[in-house]
Design brief:
With 398 residues, this protein is an alpha/beta fold. It contains 14 helices and twelve strands. It has two domains: 138 residues, Aspartate Aminotransferase, domain 1, CATH 3.90.1150; 228 residues, Aspartate Aminotransferase, domain 2. The longest helix has 17 residues.
Amino acid sequence: MQTVTDEIRKSMEGSSWIRKMFEKGIELKKRHGADAVCDFSLGNPDVPPPAAAKAALEAIAADAVKPLGLGYCPNAGIPAVRDAMAAYIARQQAMAVEGRHVVLTVGAAGALVSFFRAVIEPGDEVVCPAPYFVEYASYCGHFGGVLKPVDSLPDEGFRPDFAAMERAITPRTRAILVNSPNNPTGCIYGEEDMRKLADIVNKVNATRERPLFLLSDEPYRAFAYDGAVVAPVLPLTPYAVVLGSFSKTLSLAGERIGYVVVHPDMPDGATLVNAITLTNRTLGFVNAPVIGQRLAMALLDETVDLAIYDRRRRLMAQVLEDAGIEFALPRGAFYFFPKAPGGDDLKFVDALQDELILAVPGRGFGMAGHVRLSCSVDEAIIARSADGFKRAVARLGA
């Protein structure tokens, strides 16, 4: 008896490598003890939220006992929060944005799913650089969309291959999706890079009725190191759509607060905002969590202690360098995407597991031959892994 669809059955059989490694971690921790396992598989932000979160939650709690204090709000979000979010986004994107251009969503994932539901017809394509966040294919695939990854350039720090991306565009391509700072590589696309992508979008749209969107997924925007700058996207093309969340910036992953902002001058942009508001509701999200909305608004000028992540980044770089592992130093986010010694990411992951180190194979992100390591762990865990990395590399070399 078949209880689920063939599509979902197939997805379950090929479930996310991140989830597989998470489950492997549970097994290893039960067998050897949690302190013995160095788990770099999940990007679950562990740095505490800003100290101001406590007072903000107390103020929210005082209002929560009032009638409708925790009731439904407008599907696009609480109006005051939308306005505050618009001012926040305007500072980041270096152009004026109003609350009516913003929809608050259930995380950046909810923003992407709601956007794709609004614009994707079966057979439409979404082009993105590889490696890419593992769920992108599912987010657009739920509505008949097809993700078309295009290999980026590892020897150039994983910059996009612009010529290859332009060649990948067909009449069915609906969006170019980019993620900067990038998960899993930590690459930050500079202003020149983003301008090249915007030029491609503008060129294509000059001959189209159904526009091609430049979709910028930015949940790691605050995580930029060594003076790196995350380029604003909205000013580059009227067909820009920016998404983000506060899961990492404020360590509010469980509150599921994200947003999507549509370029103020996009032709028929108001219809797109209204459509995303509708799909946000009809997909079952209804509205972003009210407590999370108010908490995010109270903390818009705050971030977690980014210096902690930078120290971890530098320590992980030293561990990998000492082990003889080739890598590009990430300029943003909190991941490393080093080359697998010998070129086989599955063999390297297995060798690391023998040392009680958990990493995710790069093929799970659309680029085999690498592994992803998350630095959302304590420095002591990174330091403790050093000898294990060396032994795993030595074993592969032997």
